[in-house]
Give the backbone structure.
Amino acid sequence: MSRNAYIVGTGHNVPDGVLTNADLEKIVDTTDEWIVKMTGIKERRKTDDSTATSDLVTVAVKNAIEMAGWEPEDVQGIIVGTVTPDYYFPSTAAIVADKLGMKNIPAYDFEAGCTAFIYGLVQAKAFIESGMMDRMIIVGADCLTKITNWTDRSSCILFGDGAGAVAVSSEGPGGRLGGWHWGSDGSMGKHLFQPAGGSKKPASHETVDNMEHTIHMNGARIFKYAVRTMHDSCMEALKMDGTEKKDVDLLVSHQANLRIIDATARALELKPEQVYINIQKYGNTSAATIPMALDEAVRDNTIKETSTVVLAAFGAGLTWGGMILHW
Ligand code: COA
């Protein structure tokens, strides 16, 4: 008998600190009006100096396993998609597993920029449908404000911190993981990257002085690419799933820019009420945007027992991906 993978629990967590557009007006030459018009963002959350990605993830995972009705010892594996781990090593996943009392299980981080959560779901589907695991946790989490250049007005207005997690099981009921698509184009990597701190350019006084540990982004290039790859990912995932556009109930896409989300929604011929949007509250939380929005949509009953949901993302790499969920 063929096996399926189901999302049976969702959870998210954001830091308490709120950074509004009015706050940003005091830091860089920008206006609330420009930010809202160009991105849809009104405020974002920012961690304090003592809070790391693992702190946000721990709460998000707790919430997801609580909804699933699991105990920590039920979890057979945890993977965390992030570009802002607590450390290069050990992994954030291992730190969280230890904090939650998940003993001796496989725990690792992986990186696919803002597409990481979709990449994580594809891995969960493979592990669970193949019979390698029955219950695992997939996380998308980032603290982008830790690597933001607060003097660059074209990027610092976009980013926020957050974590989202799902519990994926071989047993429903829940959101069944359906058709999917994932891809990358490394030749575009230079348009969204952190130049220093890796093996190519290890940290030095010079790299710190030059702000090379912060996000460097060519917004206009990314924008065009995002609109195309988000659309293509949705269409490929729908095709694999055997689902028509007209049968989609809800789009939960990466929350990078309201105009990019709108373009994807238009391509799918969706009405405004069929698109989940929370970018106004959180900005772009990178790998966390989709699992955070998914958790909100589950908890506020936007996602119902029969919903067909399309997930779509793009991010650093450049990477892109899509997945269909059937509740
Ligand atoms: N406030 C006011 N003006 C700003 C500004 C800000 N925060 N940031 C940039 N501008 C100005 C620019 O200096 C430029 O001025 P100029 O015409 O006098 O040179 C003008 O606005 C247009 O800049 P541009 O960068 O071409 O705007 P844009 O239409 O590309 O919008 C983004 C900028 C960042 C909103 C948009 O490119 C974007 O969202 N891209 C995708 C980024 C993304 O999603 N990254 C994460 C991927 S996971």
User: Anything to note?
Assistant: The first helix runs from residue 21 to 25.
